[in-house]
Amino acid sequence: MATIEEVARAAGVSTATVSRALREQSGVSERTRKRVRTVAEELDYSISRSASGLATGRTRRIGVLVPYVSRWFFGQVLAGAEEVLRSAGYDLMLYVVGDREGRERFFRELPVRRSVDAVLVLTLSLREKEADRLRELGVPLGFVGGRMDGFNSVWIDDYGGGMLAVRHLLNQGNRDIALIHGGAPDSLNLPAPHERCTAFRDAMAEYGVPVRESWLCTGDFSVSGGRRAMNRILADELRPTAVFAMSDEMAFGALHALRDHKLSVPREMMIVGFDGHEMAECSGLSTVVQPVHEEGATAARLLLEQLQQGGDETRDVVLSTELVVRSSTTGHDSM
Q1: Which of the residues 22, 120, 135, 177 has the least number of beta carbons within 10 Å of its own beta carbon?
Q2: Which InterPro entries does the protein's record reference (predicted)?
Q3: At 217, phi and psi to the nearest 5?
């Protein structure tokens, strides 16, 4: 492995500049920083994490608070954040709070204290006491999935996206529309399910269409849950002509159930999802696409900017959604 002196000579800078560039400290132009990084990679040189921490007071670690890791959405957001942070020399420390006990223990013990340089929260509507506990850490904070005071916030318009989906079904002539929702436990307090449910009810009311409560079923944001929910809907004495599934994974499960019942899509049942899963295109699924990977990447960039510039100023970024219409709601049958 090369030494810092060898990197400095190859890059045409001082050893102090190499140190500042690789530690993301100020006083180095972006052009020089990139040149130093390139030379360091070519020479297989890396700074000592422990030495860097002692010199800068930083751990080079970012804590990430997430309710799930097995769901597609959270995996994609994490991938986007990890890609940006890794390229800047940071590691992720993952904290999963998918149940009430785990969440309460995290905020009681706060294991990230003095262990990370920043904290990123993924789609958890924090209670004020929880948000205050994180603010007490005195490190940059990021939030994906809504807006929080004192946090760099990245989100989409879940309500607007839900309206796009349901209006699309209504404009196709449907009036008997079911909803497969996430059904997240109250302990997780996820913002997206609430916003999309509200959009469903408001769009139906906008068109003067009543909501049949027996057609509102929990799908647990999973393929298997979506399949079970669709089966419950089909067991009702009346059958809808369309379904809004609040995630693509639940929509995939619903499509499985419709196939089991030999129902044709979209002739006998239309279905629209939400997320923009990579399997949606090959499944012919109409869906509201959100830039999931970019949500994580954007949140990571905002944290890095605050770490580099210092100060308490935070930023809000709203990313756009788009309805992509495929054969599950129009055109040829997808099944």
Answers
A1: 135
A2: HTH_LacI, LacI/GalR-like_sensor, Lambda_DNA-bd_dom_sf, Peripla_BP_I
A3: -125, 150
Residue with tokens 């921490």: 53
Domains of the chain plus CATH, in order, are 4-55 (1.10.260.40), 59-156+292-319 (3.40.50.2300), 158-290 (3.40.50.2300)
| Spatial separation of the C-alpha atoms in residues 228 and 289, rounded to whole Å | 24
- pLDDT digit string, tens, across residues 130-181: 999 999 999 999 999 988 899 999 999 999 999 999 999 999 999 999 999 9
Neighbours of 264 (CB within 10 A): 12
- Condensed to tens digits (0 to 9), the pLDDT of residues 300-313 reads 999 999 998 888 89
In the chain, the amino acid numbered 284 is G
The reported pTM is 0.79
Classified as helix, coil or strand, 153 is strand
Q: How far apart are CA 63 and CA 87, in angstroms?
A: 16
Largest CA distance in the chain: 79
pLDDT in tens, 62-101: 999 998 888 899 999 999 999 999 999 899 999 998 888 9
Assess contact for 174 and 212: CB atoms under 8 A. no
